[in-house]
Amino acid sequence: MARKGLFSASPEKKLTAVNSDDAPAVPQRVSPPAFATRGALGAVTRSIDELAARADAARDLEARLTAGETVIDVDPDIIDPPFIADRLSHDDDADFRTLVAAIEARGQDSPVLVRPHPKESGRYQLAFGRRRWRACKVLGRQVRAVVKKLSDRDLVLAQGQENSARANLSFIERALFAWRLEEGGYDRETIMSALTVDKTVVSRMISVVKKIPLAIIEAIGSAPTTGRDRWVDLATAFEAGVDIEQVTDFLASADVQAASSDERFDLVFGLISNPPVPEEPAARAVAKKAHGQYWSTPAGVRVARVSSTDRAFVLSIDKRNAPGFGDFLLTQMDRLFETYSNEKKED
Prior knowledge:
It is built from 15 helices and eight strands. It has 347 residues and is an alpha/beta fold. The strands form two sheets. The chain has a five-stranded mixed sheet with strand order 1-5-3-4-2. A three-stranded antiparallel sheet has the order 6-7-8, covered by helices on one side. α4 (152-166) runs parallel beside α6, α8 (214-220) runs parallel beside α10 (244-252) and α12 packs across α13.
């Protein structure tokens, strides 16, 4: 009988990132009262519950993959990243700095998973835990790791499923990971298992990456709050015909480089939706029309980003600073529009 793979399961019950026969039981969450599921309060509750459930799923997956294994301390300098990249974000973002501070204060709570390097003796290759590994490297301390023999397929499955469970990759990062897996010769079944999505979603992800030049995606970055639909719209625009050189030069301009990743996406979308007049350089024209306006609370918390062009006014709510505020705003739209209409009549 052939040896079962790392992620194999009996026909009666399929193991996924959130269920396992071997992992320790995860306490069931009590559903919130019915009245808490409505309106802005309900949106906040759902957001918190969803994040907590995903965190539980990630811990469950890690427990299953590292069950019965010994945790050892490894020099981070002898660990190499996964052979298929899964991130566009840099290690200078606020979340990473928070992780570094947490590990410095209380140590590394969860071990990373590595395998003996398949080509270099005495080195290891990371399966998951890249940010924990990078944080330990920044701090100059040993990284707590579980060493496990993994095939290439097992490694990408562990890498993809752990990222999916944690939900800390943006849509475009997941799409790039799917595309890189396909380019690496992996079949759709493996990609679906790694990302825990169905065939239709995988096809859409890969389609987006194929339509937008890789250099432009990388220049825009992870765009953590920009979802699938907006990337699909951008891909459709590129498929219809876009001046690639103009967009590339635009993204290289100082104003656009200074913007956040989500802002760069908005600026590029504004550029191709409303091309500037020939007399004015593209970067200066669009950056002047659409760059860098924010709305903050009286306490100074930045809640919304505003991007405005001649054809569109985009209001992006930062869900990390104001979870549920977007849903609440939608419930107030009728009243706001009525106020706006009345004021227009008075004018």
